[in-house]
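Checklist before submission:
- one chain only
- standard amino acids only
- sequence pasted in full

Submission:
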Amino acid sequence: MPANRDPRPSSVPTPTASDAGLPTAPTWASRDALPAFSPAPGVTVQVVAGGRLMTAWVRIEPDTALALHHHPHEQLGVVLEGAIAVTIAGETRPLTVGHAYAVPPGLVHGGVAGPHGCLVLESFTPPREDYLALAAAAAGQAGNA
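Returned file contents:
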């Protein structure tokens, strides 16, 4: 393929001015190589991000409560291991492996990990700047170790 040819299929729209500043190359990541950080006691997070989307592996220790909170990001989570009781807008549901949830921007939500903890894969749009900053700080500390 010639170097100047756009590798996207012709059915994919060409980037527009609103795409300015977004990555133009793919991002590849291995969870084992991503820096881990702890935004709250009992919670460990590793993230990979693109320009408009971020995915996080979130490990929550047994019986750890995640305080009710809200943020301007849309959030979607899938339970990969263990169990967690998730509360969204006052409704609590017990979730186990294979269950998923979606939180619209601004809705109050939180959770409590089960007795064996859990691993949840969460995606946010737009990316959470606080998590990106914590990941960058963790990467800097890992580089200095």
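Reviewer check: The CA atoms of residues 15 and 21 lie 11 Å apart.
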